[in-house]
């Protein structure tokens, strides 16, 4: 997806190898200027080709700013060293200041590919914790077609603790998205080594001092204990977080002044502590949320506080089954009539005051009881905040465990007791236990994985443990819960998830997919394929005729199901149009020997 985004980016992008006279890759804008070294423009009187030669020779990055050609628009050129095909090389980015909005600078209007790059680099999911309701949202600036460097992230640290981070990298376009990605990666690496705010900011400071495009970035970093509500935090050049109290009162937390990352070597970091009480809401935001004039308040911070309080007070806003995610609603609320002045990232952490009780079902191991188990478990999982896609996998796995007990535990005798329990620990790990008091009986055909039901379960959840006891069998299923963050509803359709349905009218189920098979669409496709094939034990076909984008995540799913089918003695049939991009992706991925392409 990132390569696709770079292909359609408004900046001209070239990748050169020192061993070859011509570039090994260029995007659409570079081809319009001229694909070879001779096509590199002159900026501020300096031939970019000369800049490239210097970077290839010295291995040191270089940046120049100035007019593009004689009297052209202000332009930034960045040349960065990199490895290309096991040899030294460089990447060249030529970006006029208004390339994304002024169509006269380029022969044709650019597609908004940079935003897709930004979205692909934001966290694909947030932890789903029993004591916290987390939601995140990113919206691009309305006045530009280029994504900026605003970002958010959450890092589970264990024992109910989670790191909450919001930042803003300098600039916009591909360089800002790249800087954001590097900064987020450095933050995660630092937090997993030592999560203390002072240690993380010191590490990010040192990182930013060595990376020209990261220097000057702002960041807020805090560690929240979901159980006690204690928040320890620090910030570098970032606005203070907002707290909405249970009674609706608002206040901004104290943040001692500190320069942005990398701008002042060895800057001191002051760590502050605050206790977020139950029912209170913490709102982290990037600079874009308070950019521009506030039409209904004397200050943009006042406007943000007013909007956040109204969102939190809305009926159902902070319930798992609520109508809208609070982070997205807050971002929408601070939007000016003409749109967002700057990119906006919002991260919300609401400390629940009503912890959900574990689920306990005691019933008879009879197939007639299974629909009731599914209904009650579905309601319980929905209340946790699980989306439909995740619920389907858990429901199918638990259904298989219950079906095994109903069909095998009391074979040859009257059905006996069966219990189903479900609970979530402080780190958001769901544990479902299905127990009977009968006798374990291996199925007639044992594939080496203790039965078909176990095969299905292990494909749908993170961990399955089978315990055979003197009287009864216990099956324990574990799943780490996550939820998807909100992104701009106006983003290009290519980044939206796919539509996946199962057609059971023919001789075998056909899973039909349309739209963009990104990471989320691939997961939907995986669940439906495993569900339709009963965990890979029965034949199924995959119809990709309506797919508009097929990512590497989709390739991994097809590969996994094809391998299961091979091990089970059947071959996956995949329908993809001859000459189409989906067919091409499947062919170059080496799947031709594992699936039947039609």
From TrEMBL:
Residues 483-492 have a biased composition (Basic and acidic residues). The keyword Hydrolase applies. It comes from the Bacteria. Keywords: Hydrolase. It comes from Blastococcus tunisiensis. This is Anti-anti-sigma factor. Residues 510-598 form the STAS domain. One of its GO terms (molecular function) is phosphatase activity. The lineage of its organism: Bacteria, Bacillati, Actinomycetota, Actinomycetes, Geodermatophilales. It holds the Pfam family SpoIIE. PROSITE patterns: STAS (PS50801). Residues 481-506 are annotated as: Disordered. SMART domains: PP2C_SIG.
């Amino acid at each position: 997806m990132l390569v696709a985004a770079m292909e359609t980016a408004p900046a001209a992008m070239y990748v050169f190898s020192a061993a070859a006279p011509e570039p090994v890759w260029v995007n659409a804008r570079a081809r319009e200027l001229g694909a070879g070294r001779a096509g590199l423009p002159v900026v501020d009187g300096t031939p970019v080709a000369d800049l490239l030669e210097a970077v290839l020779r010295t291995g040191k990055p270089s940046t120049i700013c100035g007019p593009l050609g004689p009297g052209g628009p202000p332009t930034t050129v960045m040349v960065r060293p990199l490895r290309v095909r096991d040899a030294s090389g460089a990447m060249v980015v030529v970006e006029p200041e208004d390339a994304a909005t002024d169509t006269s600078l380029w022969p044709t209007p650019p597609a908004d590919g940079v935003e897709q790059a930004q979205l692909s680099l934001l966290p694909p999911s947030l932890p789903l914790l029993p004591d916290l309701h987390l939601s995140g949202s990113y919206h691009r600036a309305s006045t530009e077609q280029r994504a900026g460097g605003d970002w958010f992230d959450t890092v589970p640290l264990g024992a109910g603790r989670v790191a909450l981070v919001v930042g803003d990298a300098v600039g916009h376009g591909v360089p800002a998205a790249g800087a954001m990605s590097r900064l987020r990666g450095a933050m995660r690496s630092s937090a997993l080594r030592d999560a203390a705010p002072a240690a993380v900011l010191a590490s990010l400071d040192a990182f930013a001092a060595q990376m020209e495009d990261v220097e000057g970035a702002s960041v807020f970093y805090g560690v929240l204990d979901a159980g006690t509500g204690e928040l320890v935090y620090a910030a570098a050049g970032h606005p203070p977080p907002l707290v909405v109290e249970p009674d609706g009162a608002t206040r901004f937390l104290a943040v001692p002044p500190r320069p942005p990352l990398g701008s002042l070597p060895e800057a001191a970091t002051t760590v502050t502590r605050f206790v977020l009480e139950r029912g209170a809401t913490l709102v982290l935001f990037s600079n874009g949320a308070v950019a521009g004039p506030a039409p209904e308040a004397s200050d943009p911070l006042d406007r943000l506080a007013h909007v956040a309080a109204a969102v939190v007070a809305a009926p159902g806003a902070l319930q798992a089954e609520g109508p809208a995610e609070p982070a997205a609603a807050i971002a929408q609320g601070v939007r000016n009539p003409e749109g967002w002045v700057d990119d906006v990232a919002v991260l919300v952490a609401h400390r629940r005051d009503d912890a959900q009780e574990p689920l306990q079902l005691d019933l008879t191991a009879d197939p007639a009881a299974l629909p009731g188990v599914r209904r009650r478990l579905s309601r319980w999982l929905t209340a946790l905040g699980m989306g439909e896609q995740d619920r389907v996998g858990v429901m199918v796995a638990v259904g298989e465990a219950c079906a095994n007990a109903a069909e095998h535990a009391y074979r040859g005798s009257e059905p006996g007791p069966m219990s189903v329990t479900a609970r979530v620990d402080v780190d958001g790990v769901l544990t479902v236990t299905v127990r009977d008091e009968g006798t374990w009986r291996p199925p007639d055909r044992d594939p080496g994985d203790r039965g078909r039901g176990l095969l299905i379960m292990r494909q749908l959840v993170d961990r399955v443990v089978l315990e055979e006891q003197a009287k009864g069998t216990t099956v324990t299923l574990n799943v780490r819960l996550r939820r998807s963050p909100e992104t701009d509803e106006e983003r290009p359709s290519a980044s939206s998830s796919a539509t996946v349905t199962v057609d059971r009218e023919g001789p075998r189920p056909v899973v039909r997919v349309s739209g963009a098979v990104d990471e989320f669409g691939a997961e939907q496709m995986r669940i439906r394929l495993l569900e339709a094939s009963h965990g890979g034990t029965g034949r199924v076909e995959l119809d990709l005729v309506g797919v508009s984008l097929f990512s590497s995540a989709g390739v991994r799913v097809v590969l996994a199901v094809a391998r299961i089918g091979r091990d089970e003695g059947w071959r996956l049939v995949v329908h993809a149009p001859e000459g189409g991009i989906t067919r091409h992706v499947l062919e170059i991925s080496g799947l031709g020997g594992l699936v039947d392409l039609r």
